[in-house]
């Protein structure tokens, strides 16, 4: 009952903040750079016949719900960069020299599913990097340099994969990472954690993953960056998650005097 009441309170807070923003015609855009690297589902035309994965498998490898939650932020932030290309083809959240199976151009999806019917030649890999990876990072670096703060946005499954015969372990409402303190200050991370917890109505984990992606580590534009991942759990509707993230970012910018 306590958790249910907390969820309802968070939803009311987020909806209230959203309504106030919609009523304010003079609303100032937030001085944020948003990166959304894993919402794409498309396979570039020249690779369509080479790709072994069906649409369902490509979608499963993407950050489910991330487009619905984060794309509307493009209306309230100064910079929003995303891609239509599926992450199993080109992953902007990897360094361009990362040639692992799960690297910049993936050879396998999760498990043993090969992405392509044959290994790609080095010239093909370089071509994909040139067409999709470098423009993504060039756009981020160029536009983020004029902003105050950056967020690389993702979603994650609501429960971790079970270990052995155990049950799936529940996860927090959201995760934040600052590359172990390298991409922004702890004070800034704590402030954003507080705001997200308030509007998402539950715990937000900090630096629980040691794999904060390349975008956070590389700090495009030389500004502070954080990796944000929202749970795909069903405690809130997608509409309310979208409103909660929006409200949290507005409050964070006000409290941090970014506005």
Description:
- The chain has 259 residues and is an alpha/beta fold.
- It has a single domain (2-159, 169-255), classed as Aminopeptidase (3-Layer(aba) Sandwich), CATH 3.40.630.40.
- It is 37% helix and 15% strand.
- It has 7 helices and 8 strands.
- It has helices at 2-23, 55-61, 66-70, 122-144, 186-200, 214-218, 238-255; strands spanning 30-36, 77-82, 149-156, 159-160, 169-170, 174-177, 204-206, 225-231.
- The strands form 2 sheets. Strands 2-1-3-8-6-7 form a 6-stranded mixed β-sheet, sandwiched between helices. Strands 4-5 form a two-stranded antiparallel sheet.
- Helix 1 crosses helix 7 and helix 5 (186-200) runs antiparallel to helix 7.
- It is globular.
- Mean pLDDT is 90; it is low at 22-26.
Q: Could you give the topology of this structure?
A:
Layout: H1 2-23, E1 30-36, H2 55-61, H3 66-70, E2 77-82, H4 122-144, E3 149-156, E4 159-160, E5 169-170, E6 174-177, H5 186-200, E7 204-206, H6 214-218, E8 225-231, H7 238-255
Parallel strand pairs: 1-2, 1-3, 3-8, 6-7
Antiparallel strand pairs: 4-5, 6-8
């Amino acid at each position: 009952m306590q958790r249910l009441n907390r969820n309802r309170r968070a939803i009311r807070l987020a909806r209230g903040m959203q309504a106030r923003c919609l009523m304010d015609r003079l609303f100032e855009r937030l001085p944020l750079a948003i990166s959304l690297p894993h919402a794409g589902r498309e396979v570039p035309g020249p690779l369509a016949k080479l790709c072994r994965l069906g649409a369902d498998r490509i979608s499963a490898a993407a950050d489910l719900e991330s487009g619905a939650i984060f794309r509307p932020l493009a209306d309230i932030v100064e910079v929003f960069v995303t891609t239509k290309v599926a992450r199993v083809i080109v992953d902007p959240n990897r360094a361009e020299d990362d040639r692992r199976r799960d690297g910049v151009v993936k050879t396998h999806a999760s498990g043993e599913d090969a992405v392509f019917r044959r290994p790609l030649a080095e010239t093909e890999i370089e071509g994909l990097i040139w067409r999709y990876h470098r423009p993504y990072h060039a756009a981020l670096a160029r536009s983020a340099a004029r902003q105050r703060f950056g967020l690389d946005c993702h979603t994650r499954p609501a429960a971790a994969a079970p270990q052995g015969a155990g049950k799936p372990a529940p996860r927090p409402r959201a995760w934040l990472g600052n590359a172990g303190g390298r991409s922004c200050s702890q004070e800034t991370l704590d402030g954003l954690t507080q705001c997200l917890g308030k509007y998402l109505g539950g715990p937000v984990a900090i630096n629980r993953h040691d794999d904060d992606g390349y975008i956070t580590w590389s700090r495009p534009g030389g500004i502070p960056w954080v990796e944000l991942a929202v749970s795909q759990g069903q405690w809130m509707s997608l509409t309310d998650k979208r409103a909660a993230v929006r409200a949290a970012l507005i409050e964070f910018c006000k409290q941090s005097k970014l506005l």
